[in-house]
Design a protein that fits this description.
The chain is α/β, with parallel strands linked by helices. The chain has two domains: 2-66, 2-Layer Sandwich (Double Stranded RNA Binding Domain); 83-161, Orthogonal Bundle (Arc Repressor Mutant, subunit A). It has five helices and six strands; from the N terminus they run E-E-E-E-H-H-E-H-H-E-H. The chain has helices at residues 56-66, 83-93, 103-109, 117-125, 152-161, and strands spanning 2-9, 12-20, 28-35, 49-50, 101-102, 138-139. Helix 3 crosses helix 4 (117-125).
């Protein structure tokens, strides 16, 4: 059974969706985490039950991340995506808190030819688990902020929170 809850936080309202499972902490594996109201963001569908208790461990970890107490999520995820996407997401998972990488470096790390960098970028962009899978840590080779499902401003906000960017003073 799919379950969901909404978490209010610095990025806005986050929709957390999970699938009940006997092996995950709290019995629920995470299927998606998204910012409500952004493009391609999932919406609550019929057949999903609102159940914050089933997602309590994920909610606790997300809140701990935003309060600066957690730098590495320990959650079970429902397998999703193509084999290629899973490889790219695995490489993203290896980018530590407070660090960034480029799409080109991810491509190299995966042993792919340079001409596959756009495909890698597409897989990063298809990440259904905003924040808990650190797609925000992938940036352009020139240091520019490239697309982010939650919006580039949220990407900057997350990287600033992690200390990977210095806040802009005006």
């Amino acid at each position: 059974m799919r379950v969901h809850t909404v978490i209010d936080g610095p990025l806005g309202q986050l929709l957390l969706v999970g699938e009940e499972s006997g092996t995950a902490p709290g019995g629920t594996a995470i299927t998606s985490l998204s910012v409500q109201g952004t493009r391609k963001a999932p919406v609550v569908r019929t057949g999903r039950r609102h159940d914050q208790a089933a997602l309590a461990e994920a909610v606790r970890q997300i809140r701990a991340y935003f309060s600066g107490e957690l730098t590495n999520f320990q959650l079970e995820f429902m397998p999703t995506g193509t084999e290629f996407q899973q490889q790219v997401w695995g490489a993203l998972d290896a980018v530590p808190y407070g660090a960034t990488t480029t799409y080109g470096k991810l491509t190299e790390r995966l042993g792919l030819p340079r001409e596959r960098v756009q495909a890698v970028g597409g897989a990063v962009g298809a990440n259904p688990r905003l924040l808990v899978r650190p797609c925000h840590r992938a940036i352009g080779a020139d240091g520019s902020m490239r697309g982010h499902a939650g919006g580039v401003e949220r990407k900057v906000q997350l990287l600033t929170h992690e200390g990977a960017l210095q806040p802009t003073l005006i």
